[in-house]
Specification:
Blueprint lengths: L1 H4 L5 E4 L6 H6 L7 E6 L7 H9 L6 E6 L18 E2 L2 E2 L9 E5 L17 E5 L4 H6 L3 H13 L8 H9 L8 E7 L4 H11 L5 E7 L7 H8 L7 E5 L21 H22 L6 E6 L6 E9 L8 E5 L4 E2 L4
Parallel strand pairs: 1-2, 2-3, 3-6, 6-7, 7-8, 8-9, 9-10, 10-11
Antiparallel strand pairs: 4-5, 11-12, 12-13, 12-14
């Protein structure tokens, strides 16, 4: 079918399951604006075919490589250092000059892709697939099914450390970026990573961070102070991986664990409210909304805290109000 429409195709979504990199790489797509690869893709088995396929799509505006990593495998660079970017056998610095949105699951610290991004890229998403937080704190029926699917397919989770994420973002030359989504495992470079985000992407208005800290105390003040220079930030989303998160309890064998409503409410009104207040008082006056990931029943959700500023906007006059409706935290 691709052979009959490759010259006119503008949007292509390849769903879960093996995709034919040889077919993709043999055709040219002059009008393709959006490419999405989902699921476990065989493109990762052959870097040459992957790059060749992508190089045949010079007018991409949206590129989403939302690819899960099979068990026993590690993540893979989209563009390894040994493979050049070329169009029609000619090297190019920016393979997709019109690219505005890029999503890569499990980014690799040695990926040369990030050096070649256009300066006016607007959205960058570097997250796990399915999101690792479901494995960490999800206890609903939906999350149980997700856990069963994870075990069935044996997916791996090579989430970059803060040091590796730092290497990736230092390669970017995209000062106009307005939205960033990032996941990382906490190490000693976390604050340096956050400061690099501020320096590299000064135009950010939406920032989403998922930090996996294995029960360590959350350095709220340091995180907030590192992000404070983001003068245009409007919405901040964070999975804190707080050690104060409520414990789920079991209702019996073969029944998924659940969270008590009273425990969730206490978490929302206590630790998360405090965290949202710290962010509201430390970050730029442009901040309007803080969303923090919370366990719940029946599913995980983003608890939303609206920033309230009294006249004069002194630190002591800044507070937050939790909104009644949270947003579901989807698996993808």
């Amino acid at each position: 079918m691709l052979r009959s429409c490759n010259n006119s195709l503008e949007k292509l979504i390849i769903p879960r399951g093996p995709s034919p990199p040889d077919v993709l790489s043999m055709l040219y797509y002059p009008r393709l604006r959006e490419l999405t690869l989902r699921g476990v893709s065989s493109l990762q088995k052959d870097h040459n075919l992957c790059i060749r396929a992508l190089m045949n799509m010079p007018n991409l505006c949206v590129l989403k490589l939302d690819i899960a990593v099979p068990g026993g495998h590690t993540n893979w660079p989209v563009r390894p250092p040994s493979i050049p970017f070329t169009f029609n056998d000619r090297s190019t610095c920016t393979p997709w000059p019109n690219l505005k949105c890029l999503s890569v699951s499990f980014p690799h610290p040695n990926d040369e892709l990030y050096v070649h991004l256009p300066r006016d890229l607007r959205t960058l998403s570097l997250r796990s697939l399915p999101h690792y937080w479901h494995r960490r704190i999800g206890c609903s029926w939906g999350s149980r099914a997700m856990g069963q699917m994870m075990r069935r397919f044996g997916w791996s989770y090579p989430i970059p450390t803060a040091s590796e994420a730092l290497c990736i973002l230092q390669r970017c030359r995209t000062p106009g970026l307005s939205q960033l989504q990032l996941e990382y495992r906490v190490d000693d470079e976390e604050i340096a990573l956050l400061r690099t985000i501020v320096h590299t992407f000064p135009e950010l208005d939406h920032l989403e961070i998922a930090r996996y800290a294995d029960g360590q105390v959350v350095p709220l003040k340091e995180i907030a102070e590192a992000l404070a220079p983001l003068a245009k930030l409007n919405t901040l989303r964070v999975y804190l991986d707080s050690p104060e998160s409520p414990e789920a309890y079991s209702r019996g064998r073969h029944i998924p664990r659940v969270y008590r409503r009273v425990d969730v409410d206490s978490f929302l009104d206590g630790p998360l409210n405090h965290a949202a207040t710290v962010f509201a008082r430390k970050l730029s006056p442009s901040l309007e909304l803080v969303q923090l990931l919370s366990p719940g029943s029946p599913s995980l959700f983003w608890a939303s805290y609206r920033v309230l500023r009294a006249n004069g906007a002194h630190v002591g006059d800044i507070s937050v109000r939790r909104e009644d409706e949270g947003q579901p935290a989807h698996w993808d």
